[in-house]
Amino acid sequence: MALIVQKFGGSSVADIDRIRNVANRVAEYRRRGDQVVVVVSAMKGVTDNLIEMAKSLMPVPSEREMDMLLSTGEQTTIALLAIALQSMDIPAASLTGAQAGIVTDGVHSKAKIRNITPRKIHALLDAGNVTIVAGFQGETSEGHITTLGRGGSDLTAIALASALKADLCQIYTDVDGVYTSDPRIVPTAKKLEEVSYDEMLELASLGAKVMQSRSVEFAKKFGVIFEVRSSLNDNPGTLVKEETQSMEGVVIRGVSLDKNQAKITLVGVPDEPGMAARVFQQLADSTINVDMIVQNVSHGSDTPATDLSFTIDKPDMARAQTVIDGLRDNINFVDVLADENIGKLSIVGVGMRSHSGIAAKVFEVLAGAGVNIQMISTSEIKISVVIGIEKAEEATRAVHDAFLD
Amino acid sequence: MALIVQKFGGSSVADIDRIRNVANRVAEYRRRGDQVVVVVSAMKGVTDNLIEMAKSLMPVPSEREMDMLLSTGEQTTIALLAIALQSMDIPAASLTGAQAGIVTDGVHSKAKIRNITPRKIHALLDAGNVTIVAGFQGETSEGHITTLGRGGSDLTAIALASALKADLCQIYTDVDGVYTSDPRIVPTAKKLEEVSYDEMLELASLGAKVMQSRSVEFAKKFGVIFEVRSSLNDNPGTLVKEETQSMEGVVIRGVSLDKNQAKITLVGVPDEPGMAARVFQQLADSTINVDMIVQNVSHGSDTPATDLSFTIDKPDMARAQTVIDGLRDNINFVDVLADENIGKLSIVGVGMRSHSGIAAKVFEVLAGAGVNIQMISTSEIKISVVIGIEKAEEATRAVHDAFLD
Predict the structure, then answer these.
(1) What 8-state DSSP symbol labels residue B243?
(2) What percent of chain B has pLDDT over 90?
(3) Looking at chain A, which residue has its C-alpha nearest residue B84?
(4) Nearest to B257 by CA among B197, B363, B325, B179
(5) In this structure, what DSSP letter does residue B299 have?
(6) For A54, which residue in chain B has the nearest alpha carbon?
(7) Of A64, B25, B364, B403, which sits 20 to 30 A from A11 (CA to CA)?
(8) Contact indicator for A4, A34 with CB cutoff of 8 Å
(9) Do B83 and A69 touch (CB under 8 A)?
(10) Are the C-beta atoms of residues A64 and B26 closer than 8 Å to each other?
(11) What is the DSSP letter of B136?
């Protein structure tokens, strides 16, 4: 008898029929004797409706009340899923995040889990119930309802798996698992049987939309092995776990393309201490997320100057330009260049640590495909390049097939 | 500075505009310096939608899970109302029933309030907030969510007014208060300035749909004075309170007509001990609510027999007839007569206690209107008669105008 935590997202419970499907899947595990804890999100669309109502009253509603409001979404799903299971003669009982013992800090709308006291979950499991927990939510130690922000339901599942010392944690989604690349761009992309936390983290932050980084980070920190798999079929998914020796034999785990970034270059920034700090502090104050940053050695003679390039999310472009314009008097840069027609191509693999020459091979493949590289940024297990959008997909296929086909 | 508890039902918060109206009204009290606790129901229609979803999964869903499901309705309203108040610069914070400290027994779907520990309410009030509490719900001492059943939000308001020692408890509804009769039937009906708990109880159980009996009983038990008034205008409502000397000077407080009852007569029931018990036990076991019961002295000589008449809610008629048919072998009654074309006319007033001749005058008025009386039942402060439906409204007007015009 295993203890399994299963998580189903909003599209898996979008309507009554899908809730019944989820119940069928859960019932299978329960019938073979496993103890099952199910974490669910709000039914697709429900959260958006609630947000719309609140915003019609006030453009920026208080976060405490938004948490009170939005937490009803998951609470609705848990009750309906419990009823669906009971209709199949499977004993089931639901718990809100607060009831499940999920205690968070007091940062409404993006609370962090502080600790979990799964007393009620154990009691319900011991009484033979499938226990259904509302994802995405908890309460402060003073008893105020909080929500965990984006990706919160995944986090609930992984944190519960850790607290319950579960034998297995399954994240059900609408894809079959983690792929070597986006199959819509790279037809030769293959599903990975396993991937390390670090690789998953890089992939997650690189546009492989499977999971938010924070859930993977949490899993890594507490050593929770989890499986990403499809709620639409019975195919085995991808196991995410600590790096193993065999993983290092594989140099490259995946290739991803992020077409949602834009590039800004400040030309001729005076080469004085504190310039970069000023730029990125102002951007951070405006909650603009900066991804890649590249600065070259300075050139010029009398007044040494350098070019500073960085990438941001495309939707933040207009706001970023306003911020930069405000800095013009403060920092005597020569010009600003903005480019939305870029793609960020990234190659990820823990094997890079022990293999040299990967970067060189990437650049060679790109050169062979006639692709000009605009920016380069590397980490221990990742190489990212910014290239023109017009050749981005072709470049992705070329790099993928050179390393992974 | 007064502490006021205000309750708004589902039609008063049916949509965003009405929630804004409620916020305006609450804000008025808050702005003049009162401390305000607001109790709200689910937005009209929301509860029915949730029930429909659950029933599409299972005809009779578990009551624990229904409580989990339905309690989201009020939770949505409290958050939206808090946001509406905040948009008017009124500090506001919401609490679920559980958070508000409402502890109930464990009878899901119709829980009884055991005690209230309004620690969080006091804290929020002391911090200057309008405090909004979800009606209709609480939690068991083990932390499971419960709902209070029909009329539960009124009960929440009255119980909170008691626990908080509020100066005033206002039940906002879509009528102006309690009337001497239904104005749609009796054009001369007048709004009552005040009414005693006992009169309100009789009126509540007699089809004056303003409030459920249990809330009035609770108010009576704990001496909570409350006002029933309209959420649509600023007219003073009706004050419900302990009987006063001046109330007794008024013989009749109101006249009500219940057209939702049906009559069953068992003809020739053997006059032996235990016959009535058998009939009504069987009906109770089938959760059929019996209202009036009339049995005459027996007649006949060799085998003394009697006629037993009682009234039930019209929708229970088919089920009641099945129960009665099942008793035919057990009780040798001669015949069953069923009649759905009846009305129950009731006259209520604490003044009856000290005035004689009221019944005689009622019968005289009915005779004068050519109305035949089928059943009579009296209590200390009430006279009810069952009459034919065809003359029921005319009879109501005649009795009302004879006593109250």
Answers:
(1) -
(2) 70
(3) A57
(4) B179
(5) B
(6) B80
(7) A64
(8) yes
(9) yes
(10) no
(11) T
Q: Is B123 on the interface with A (CB under 8 A)?
A: no
Q: Which residues of A270-293 are buried (b: 16+ CB within 10 A; e: fewer)?
A: eeeeebbeebeebbeeeebebbbe
Pick from A374, A183, A382: nearest CA to A261 = A374
Task: Kindly report, residue by residue over B175-221, the tens digit of the pLDDT.
Answer: 889 999 888 899 999 999 999 999 988 876 555 567 888 899 999 99
Dist. CA B404–CA A192, nearest whole Å:
84
Residue B134 contacts A, CB cutoff 8 Å = no
Q: Is beta strand A102-104 parallel, antiparallel or unpaired with respect to A113-116?
A: antiparallel
Q: Which candidate, A91, A159, A149, places its Cα nearest to that of A125?
A: A91
Dist. CA A372–CA A366, nearest whole Å: 7
Asked if B16 lies within 8 A of A57 by C-beta distance, the reply is yes
Looking at residue B165, the DSSP 8-state letter turns out to be T
At residue A256, what is the residue type? S
Residue A244 backbone dihedrals phi, psi, to 5 degrees: -115, 165
Which of A72, A76, A70, A169 has its CA nearest to residue A110? A70
Query: pTM of the prediction?
Result: 0.85
Token pair recorded at residue A147: 């929500």
Which parts of A135-183 are beta strand (E)?
Answer: 137-140, 145-147, 168-173
Chain B residues with CB inside 8 Å of A66's CB?
79, 83
Residues A356-365 have pLDDT tens digits of 888 889 999 9
DSSP states along B170-215? EEEESSSS-BSS-TTT-TT--B-SEEEHHHHHHHHTTT-TT--HHH
Q: Which residues contact B48 (CB under 8 A, 6 or more apart)?
A: none
- Phi/psi of residue A146, nearest 5 degrees: -125, 160
Q: Are A298 and A321 contacting, i.e. CB atoms less than 8 angstroms apart? A: no
For A153, A370, B146, the CA distances from A197, given in Å and listed in that order, are 18, 34, 42
Given pLDDT bands bounded at 50, 70 and 90, which one contains residue B268?
confident
- Per-residue pLDDT tens over the stretch A197-230: 999 888 765 555 678 888 999 999 999 999 999 9
Of residues B137, B125, B162, the one with CA closest to residue B67: B137
Complex ipTM value? 0.84
Cβ of residue A19 closer than 8 Å to a chain B Cβ:
yes
Q: How far apart are CA B280 and CA B51, in angstroms?
A: 31
Domain ranges of chain B: 3-174
In words, the CATH class of domain B3-174 is alpha beta
Question: In whole angstroms, what is the distance from residue B49 CA to residue B51 CA?
Answer: 5
Residue linked to tokens 């209202």? B291
Nearest to A69 among B66, B68, B80 (CB): B80
**B179: nearest Cα among B234, B253, B272, B99:** B253
- The angle formed by the CA atoms of residues B311, B315 and B318, to the nearest 5 degrees, is 85
Taking CA atoms, what residue in B is nearest to A123? B142
As given in the structure block, the two tokens for residue A39 are 């974490």
Q: Which long-range contacts (CB under 8 A, 24 or more apart) does A367-375 make?
A: A368/A398, A369/A394, A369/A395, A369/A398, A371/A395, A371/A398, A374/A263, A374/A309, A374/A342, A375/A263, A375/A292, A375/A294, A375/A309, A375/A311
Q: Which pairs count as long-range contacts for A196-201, CB under 8 Å and 24+ apart, including other chains?
A: A196/A240, A196/A241, A196/A242, A196/A243, A196/A244, A196/A247, A196/A253, A196/A350, A197/A240, A197/A241, A197/A242, A197/A243, A198/A243, A198/A350, A198/A381, A199/A247, A199/A253, A199/A254, A199/A348, A199/A349, A199/A350, A199/A381, A200/A240
Phi, psi for residue A39 in degrees, rounded to 5:
-110, 130
- Rounded to an integer, what is the distance from CA A47 to the centroid of its chain? 19
Question: What amino acid is encoded at A181 in this protein?
Answer: S
Structure tokens at A155: 């986090």
* Chain A residues 143-202 within an 8 A CB cutoff of chain B: 143-145
Query: Dihedrals φ, ψ of B223, to 5°?
Result: 65, 35
Place of tokens 């206690």: B353
- What are the backbone angles phi and psi of residue B253, rounded to the nearest 5°? -95, -35
Instruction: Reduce the DSSP state of residue A38 to 3 states and report it.
Output: strand
